[in-house]
Amino acid sequence: MTTAKSSGGSPSTFIPNTDDDQRAMLDAIGVADFEELITDVPESHRYPALNLPEAAHEMSLAAEMAGLAASNFVPGDYACFLGSGAYRHYVPAVARKVANRGEFMTSYTPYQPEVAQGSLQVAFEFQTMVSHLMGLPVANAGMYDGPTAFAEAALMAARLTKRTKVIALDTVDERNIEVSRSYSHYQGIEIVRASASDLSVPDDAACVMVQSPNVNGVIEDMAAISTAAHASGALAVASVNPMSLGMFKSPGECDVDIATGEGQPLGVPLGFGGPYVGLFTCKDELKRQLPGRIVGKTTDTNGETGYVLTLQTREQHIRRERATSNICTSTQLIALMVAAYLATLGKQGLRETAELCYQKAHYAASQIDALDGYSLASEGTFFNEFVISCRESVQTTLGALIEHKIIGGTDASERAPNGIVFALTEQNSRAEIDRLVAALGEIGSTS
Amino acid sequence: MTPDDRKYSKEHEWALVDGNVATVGITQFATESLGDVVFVDLPEVGSAIEQFGKFGEIESVKAVSDLFSPVSGTITERNDSTIDDPETVNKSPYGDGWLLKIELSDASQLDDLMAAADYDKLTAEEA
Amino acid sequence: MASMDRRLLMDRSVAGRRAVTVPEADVPLTPLPDAELLRDDLQLPEITEGEVVRYFSLLSQLNFSVDTQYYPLGSCTMKYNPKLNDEVASLPGFSEIHPLQSDESVQGALQVLHELQDMLGEITGLPAVSVGPLAGAQGEFAGLLIARAFHKERGEDEKRNVALIPDSAHGTNPASAAMTGLDVVTVPSDEHGNVSVEDLRRLADEHTSIFMLTIPNTVGLFEPNILEITKIIHDVGGLVYADGANLNALLGLAKLGDLGFDIAHSNLHKTFSTPHGGGGPGSGPVLVTEDLAKYLPTPVVGEHNGKFSLVSPARTVGRLNGFQGSFGIAVRAYTYIRLMGLEGIKAISLNAIINANYLQSQLKDDFDVAYDRYCMHETVMSARRQKANGVSALDVAKRLIDYGIHPPTMYFPLIVPEALMIEPTETESKETLDAFIAVMKTIAVEAQDSPELLHEAPHNAANTRLDEAIAARKPVLRWTNEAAD
To answer: Domain check: are A174 and A293 in the same one?
Structure first.
């Protein structure tokens, strides 16, 4: 029997039973030793050599991890102008705090609703707020992230229309398309890129996919896309930055059929890419093809209001290979963070925050555009990010910015010469923006 | 009491014939196994249907079942009240909870179905 | 708890109340876009910070959680979640970095991911790992895509269109197989609860792309014929996939790679102690043999001369999600494995297995055991005996709530009627197990003497039994303004 160093003690602070406890249980089971319980495991393959480090004491490990964390360049410490799908918004202390409660963090998926009313009611609030933001009546309780939600929306459109072609505007971020391709490929669905300006929707198209703001930060005319799609019997599927919906028209108001998005801007830390939460909403008549969990309101045997998972027959645990998606565990805690954030920002706060992002971005864009050798490449109305065609190469520019403790944006050189996408949020102070402009001004300048 | 005025299929559907039209529904055994019916998915009026072919789905809270037609023909009527109020299927599976009326394309197919007594034997075994 | 104020946020809102203020713009203003581009309404709550705290805090108290209750949910591995994990994940250097920062600027983060890849590879014996997939189901999807890519490179993908899946499998297995366009062929279990080797031999052929197996399986049993099983599949040119949901039983005891598996996924939110979050976030790394490394989804973390970077495997099956996976979950799992260390990891399976067998041995006088043999880390019991008196597994489960215990997994796997799948995990003490046993024995007596107590359970929870039928028939999926809508 293997035990840890503290002889007679329990093997780990997370394994309470001591040698004596184990002995007592083995006796109760009626076996002389543990090996009698695992006779099915081929003897020749038991207890392989395992090359893992020794157990670490919490104190030393905490210091080690703090060192690893501190070695990263941290936005805040560095001025950050990175966007393209994840944004550095401010999360109020109260929103962070409530999400950290152990009763939320360490509870299970709410299949036993009577003991999960906390999670279920919060999920219902999340659905409510997301559906109002998106302007569509049905929102699910969250998907993995924005790109997978978008991919699943295309699959849902294919199921509904029984068609196999998807038209995706060329202003949709390539990253989204890659994920959609991964999900669509073996379902016999073909994704075709098209330009918004010269959009022709064939009558074998299941949907038109549009992203707003698009990869260049520009707000798309979702209403025109919906009209074009519907004219050919296709659905309009949009991926939207929900922070932009603090000021801009919702996809629902533009007659979009399925609207998805990345929830990260709404109260979720950047976290090096995850965990995030995918937003997924649709028109009422489409709800039976919705993927993911959904919470509904009901009553109990005493007539009291309560919440339950509903429309479960869409899901894998019942429909198995005919499920609308294979998704099981999603991102419930992150949905809670979004709900807490939206509850905290509220009606006024979200609009003001969105408008602040807009103002910072437009100030930055005009200041940079005024520099010699830099020009705003994004055409049209933008929200909080835009493409700048730079004086020097992307690599040179970003390298120089880092020297100034500035993290620049993403590479857009395929779309604009020396193009970089700069993103702004309410956290970029004027001083930071002016510093960015000054630093850009210095690059490759003859001085 | 399993009504003996109609015939039954192995998949727990019944067909009640009047002239050349069969009214089709599911049995009480089926509704009891399913539990509370929450959704019924039925085809459009005018669609063709094959004997023992799948024509739709019926869902309860925790299960989905395919619906198989006991006869071939064309759908002349659909009971939309089961779509609006799925509870009807549980309350009255042999009456108001009927699902479709089908104009038969081959009346001899009724011979492939079971009488009430034989259906009762089948369900006694399955239970 | 009918007395608790369960009003929704919008019903608590009072126009003009705020929980946070937002600064004025510190830059010269640009005119807003045309009104036709902007929305008029924004229907969000108007409450104060104090109200946010009270509302969410009171709601949280309506939940059961591992931090507050014992959760013997079979196949979920509801083990204790160490708090250092959360602290480390919250360090600004991990929680505030942007996923698209240059590799040079996030070496610490990449190092954590790289080391986690290595440790998971070492534990499972499948050395090539991507921590990208965002949950077990996405890990499965990745694994199936890898199998298809493998066969495609050999010109065999078209004929290999079948996924063999046991009848006891978790629903995500056939769902994932369907998503990758494979036909699902079900392999029956034998009367001992194991995969029927005879049937597997009959069903495996040149159409077999992959055989998906949970190990130990979903009835908590290890396949005694595992070496023969993996050989059967390899002999027909197929690949063998391990659904790692039950990996807790194998830590340190056996390696998947040694047993003949080619591909696997692991659930960090099960085996590796990351919190369940009420339904996620999770993380489902996909692990493969060296031969299959080139197909892993993009990106993985590579290392060269001590420098870490995100790389795209040579013949990657593609990108499955936005960035590089659930980093916050990965860093927690990493911290956990470091806290446990070699000896701790080895002790997990031992304790998990003893705990489950202890429960089985003490409960089998009162409840049927699905298979009369020692189990691994979970035991499948059945309320078949109680059903004869009109008491179902559901009733037993709901009655446990009145005793402050979360119900076990019920009605799964499908092959056991009135199933109650119980997984104590290694983090529960003998005292907790004894208390659970006592409660189950009490419930068994209640089932005989006062079954209505069970039929109407739970009596003491936030709600009594909820009407799921009406929720499905007439779905109400969001707050609406009763007056207006």
So the answer is: yes
**Continuous H helices in A220-331:** 222-231, 316-319
Is the minimum CB–CB distance between B63 and chain A shorter than 8 Å? yes
In the predicted structure, residue A132 carries a pLDDT above the cut 50: yes
Q: Is pLDDT above 60 for C483?
A: no
Q: How far is B67 from chain C (nearest CA, A)?
A: 19
Residue A434: CATH number of its domain: 3.90.1150.10
Do B61 and A288 lie within an 8 Å CB cutoff?
no
Element (H, E) at A299: strand A295-299
Strand (E) or helix (H) holding A169: strand A165-169
Contact (CB<8Å) C429/A16: yes
Neighbors of chain B by Cβ distance (3+ pairs < 8 Å): A, C
CA dist A175 and A177 (Å) reads 5
Q: Which residues sit opposite C410 in a β-bridge?
A: C420
Domain boundary among A285, A312, A340: A340
Query: Is some CB atom of chain A closer than 8 A to the CB atom of B61?
Result: yes
- Together in a domain, A396 and A263: no
Q: Quick check: C464 and A114 CB within 8 A?
A: yes
Chain C, nearest residue to A248 by Cα = C38
Q: What is the CATH number of the domain that holds B67?
A: 2.40.50.100
Secondary structure element (H or E) that encloses residue C433, with its range: helix C430-449
Give A222-245 pLDDT, tens digit per residue: 999 999 999 999 999 999 999 999
Per the structure, the count of domains in chain A is: 2
Residues A145 and A288 placed together within one structural domain of the fold: yes
Confidence of residue A7 (pLDDT cuts 50, 70, 90): very low
**pLDDT the model gives residue A3:** 36
Q: Which of A105, A272, A325 sits opposite C99 (nearest CB)?
A: A272
ipTM of the complex in this document: 0.96
Q: Residue B121: inside a domain, yes or no?
A: no
Nearest CA distance, B33 vs chain A (angstrom): 15
How much is the pLDDT for A313?
77
pLDDT reported for residue C485? 42
**C130/A257 Cα distance (integer angstroms):** 35
Classify residue A160: in a domain, yes or no: yes
pLDDT digits 0-9 by tens, B83-116: 889 999 999 999 999 999 999 999 999 999 999 9
> A147 in a domain, yes or no?
yes
Q: Which chains have 3 or more CB–CB distances shorter than 8 Å to chain A?
A: B, C
Decide if B64 touches A, using CB distance below 8 A. yes
- Residue A46 inside a domain? The answer is no
Assess whether A261 and A356 both reside in one domain.
Answer: no
CB contact under 8 A, B64 and A322: yes
From the list C411, C468, C472, the residue facing B39 with the nearest CB is C472
Domains of chain C (ranges; CATH) run: 9-60 (no CATH), 84-339 (3.40.640.10), 347-470 (3.90.1150.10)
Taking the CA atoms of residue C314, residue C317, residue C319 and residue C321 in that order, the dihedral angle to the nearest 10 degrees is -140
**pLDDT, tens digit, for every residue of C366-419?**
999 999 999 999 999 999 999 989 999 999 999 999 999 999 999 888 788 899
Within this chain, do residues A390 and A269 fall inside the same structural domain, yes or no? Answer: no
The mean per-residue pLDDT over the stretch A63-88 comes to 98
Contact (CB, 8 A) for C457 and C402: yes
- Choose among C6, C374, C458: nearest Cβ to A305: C6
CATH number at residue A244: 3.40.640.10
Across the interface, whether the CB atoms of C318 and A82 are under 8 A apart is answered no
Q: What is the DSSP string of C88-133?
A: HHHSHHHHS--TTS-GGGGHHHHHHHHHHHHHHHHHHT--EEE---
Q: Show the domain range for B53.
A: 7-108
CA dist., res. C338 & res. C341, Å (int)? 5
Test C276 with A410 for CB contact under 8 angstroms: no
CA distance A120 to C62: 10
pLDDT at C264: 98
* pLDDT tens readout for residues C420-458: 999 999 999 999 999 999 999 999 999 999 999 999 999
For residue A400, what are the domain limits?
A: 79-89+346-442
Nearest CA in chain A to C33: A381
Do A209 and A299 belong together in one domain? yes
Please say if the pLDDT value at position A365 is more than 90: yes
**Pairwise CB contact (< 8 Å): C472 & B59:** yes
